[in-house]
Design a protein that fits this description.
Elements lengths: L2 E4 L2 E4 L4 E7 L5 E7 L6 E7 L4 E3 L7 E6 L4 E6 L8 E8 L8 E2 L3 E6 L1
Parallel strand pairs: 2-11
Antiparallel strand pairs: 1-3, 3-8, 4-5, 4-9, 5-6, 7-8, 9-10, 9-11
């Protein structure tokens, strides 16, 4: 199983970025986790094939996760970015009984300049 993430980069505070992650197979739950320097990897948002969504409190109202089941692709629209959002973002996927799932993408760097 391969997860191919894209869309990271450098943006100013208050700006927006959109991440994409394409899976090589159909996966029940897909989502995003992030890891800042010196911190543990933590949840950003997940979405199931049926559309059930879970967000970390820190991103509610600013980030929107969505998926295109026909393309096995998940998206993360990130608005109102702040320096605290700077991290490596990892795409994740897995079956219903594994959260986070076993499949990880390669990570994409998001850097927000203040």
């Amino acid at each position: 199983v391969q997860l191919q993430a894209s869309g990271g980069g450098l943006v100013q505070a208050g700006g927006s970025l959109r991440l994409s992650c394409a899976a090589s197979i159909d996966i029940y739950r897909m989502g995003w986790y992030r890891q800042a320097p010196g911190q543990q990897r933590g949840l950003v948002a997940t979405v199931t094939r049926g559309g059930l969504i879970n967000y970390a409190d820190s991103v509610k109202g600013r980030f929107t996760i969505s998926r295109d089941n026909a393309k096995n692709t998940v998206y993360l629209q990130m608005n109102s970015l702040s320096a605290e959002d700077t991290a490596v973002y990892y795409c994740n996927g897995g079956p219903p009984w594994r959260n986070p799932g076993d499949y990880w993408g390669q990570g994409t760097q998001v850097t927000v300049s203040s």
